[in-house]
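SAMPLE LOG
Freezer: B-3
Tube label: C17
Construct: single chain, 527 aa
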Amino acid sequence: MRRIPSSAAAESSSLASSEYVLQVRNVSKAFPGVQALDNVSFDLRPGEVHVLLGENGAGKSTLMKIIAGAYRPDAGEILIDGRPAVNLTPRKAQELGVGIIYQEFNLVPYLNVAENIFIDQLPTRQLIRLDHKTAHRKAREILASLGMEVPTHALAVELSTAQQQVVEVAKALTHKSRILIMDEPTASLTDREIEQLFMTIRELKSKGIGIIYISHRLREMKEIGDRVTVLRDGKYVGTHELSEVTVDSLVTMMVGREIDLLYEHEEVGPGEEVLRVEGLSSKATGLRDVSITLRRGEIVGLAGLVGSGRTELARAIFNADRHDAGKIIIFGKETKSKTPKDSVRNRVALLPEDRKRQGLALILSVAENVLSASLDKAFPRGWVDLRKQKSIAEEYIKILRIATPSGDQITQYLSGGNQQKVVIAKWLATGSEIFIFDEPTRGIDVGAKREIYAFMNKLKKENRAVLMVSSELPEVIGMSDRIFVMREGTIVAEFSRDEATQEKIISCAMDAIPEKSTGNGIDQNAA
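STRUCTURE (predicted):
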């Protein structure tokens, strides 16, 4: 039976004696058809936040999994406290002080906070009875040391995203973690929750814990980070003090070229109306008398705070959620559709906010995902022709430049940006005319963002229509021809492209003009 530490401070009392708590030396790793890492070096000091930056597919995740013991390198070595860490496994890495918090949390939904924190080391009495009282007391001590109050009897499923993240940190500290890897920690957080997370990170730094911080939000990392290492195409580009580099220079290092204009808005000129929503309401999702329009050859942005009803509206239009009242008119006819399958027949596509859970079957191949929404169209007799499936998939792989060895590649092994392209390919294969993008660039790097934006403009030029839900105001303003703003389940404003400013949109979304915008759920600074 393992002893549970009395506090998080006790977990970090033994700091590295060397200058670096972690050193990665000349590490390489290859997978079939892909050189994921090529002679990469990296180091981490005690008590620093070292940002790891790179486009999707640059090798960040592979490097982190090697450090955490999930993968073994083909060449190179890992040193912890100046000593070689050979034959690392996840358990051995954990024992050496490496903790990792993935973008998708590893909490058990229907266990409480204390049980999740001590899930593999719960205290017992008389060898068989769990000592829940001790577990809750120790859990409260660790959470208090992080400056956070989280009810330890609450189930994990009942917690906010920010609270779940704190529980993951606390769980890592029970294993005496002195190296903490955080993968996209702010991807699903509001501004207020991000500030809470930063407070936790600063507390961890003060205890001498070294943090590897992976993020695509370039301006955010300038606030919390000390140093940055950039990877590109599996190769080491460079390491710099964050105080000495600009956002533009980091982007150039990531992509190997300068990106002058991320949002290249193209004026196409709207055509006929293809979608009209009139008085849409739903007691279950909180929608209230929502009315919007969408025309061919335009991108309409949907802005608002987290919880304002944007995703709920997108899902209602696609019939993923039912509504109680109102009309949805597609191509001039009121639709009686009741299921997503009906929407597909009506040439409506939804690229969901959570592409991994709702947009893709990750355990299936790229080719199977590309054809997953158009099997009836491609194979009307009901028999799947594998050669034809592969041929169709290869066509879209080429069109969208999906980085994959072949259509047979399992989708979960693709980067986030390439997974998003597979979702796009799936809907292109259906012949959709109306595309609903919910957070189209969440969790993908700046280079992949540019490709997604170019594709959205291509849809405009092909006389299709795009409804885009986004929490990133620069994205909404940069890409949209018109913008609707939602608040508390209803539309509160509509702006033309020329009228829209961040200040106006935030004012409408919050029903106020704040002196300082915090906790609004809209990312004004994302790259």
